[in-house]
Write a structure and sequence with these properties.
Elements lengths: L1 H30 L4 H5 L16 H14 L4 E7 L17 H8 L3 E7 L5 E8 L6 H17 L3 E5 L6 H13 L5
Parallel strand pairs: 3-4
Antiparallel strand pairs: 1-2, 2-3
Length: 184
């Protein structure tokens, strides 16, 4: 009778053993991993606070002008990384191509605004020049950015920061760069 009871329960014992083996394997794998909570806990050596804003008051003022000009004909984006717009025109994998050097010159820089058509094709980039652009370091940066955009054939419009803007003037400047033959 005992043997018939055991022979009837053997599938149950096999099931229990398989479950125990699986639990052991899973627990061993989890021991080697950090918990999700510890991965998301900030490093105590690095502390940050929110700036609370994306644009300066001057940039917001100009952005409103751009948005008014764009209407539903264009899209306006702010603070776009240059490396999202341009890439080195060399083979990344070819030895001596300087791809990484070229990329590193643009990867941590951004332009103030980008205009796209409604299919998200880039029409032009816009830099709003405040007095900081007169500093030697910024002049070097601006020259590099200007050269990069020229070599890519992508229009880059430089606008001097003002206390107010005439929409007609800004609209005309934009129209000139996005309809010029060099932007095709």
């Amino acid at each position: 009778m005992f043997s018939s009871l055991i022979s009837g329960l053997w599938p149950f014992f096999v099931f229990i053993i398989v479950i125990l083996v699986l639990l052991t394997v899973v627990s061993q794998k989890l021991k080697g991993r950090k918990s999700v909570l510890s991965e998301n806990t900030p490093n105590k050596d690095y502390r940050y606070i929110s700036t609370g804003f994306l644009f300066t008051p001057t940039e917001i003022q100009f952005l409103k002008v751009l948005e008014s000009i764009a209407g539903n004909r264009f899209n306006v984006y702010g603070k776009v990384r240059i490396s999202d717009l341009l890439k080195p025109d060399v083979n990344k994998w070819e030895k001596g191509s300087n791809w990484h050097k070229m990329f590193s010159q643009i990867c941590q820089k951004h332009v103030d605004y980008v205009l796209t058509d409604n299919d998200y094709n880039v029409l032009c980039a816009i830099e709003l020049n405040d007095p900081s652009h007169d500093e030697p370091r910024r002049i070097r940066r601006d020259n590099l950015v200007d050269d990069a955009f020229k070599s890519a054939g992508l229009p880059l419009l430089w606008i001097k920061a003002e206390s107010e803007y005439l929409e007609e003037e800004i609209s005309k400047l934009i129209a000139e760069v996005i309809t010029s033959p060099s932007s095709d």
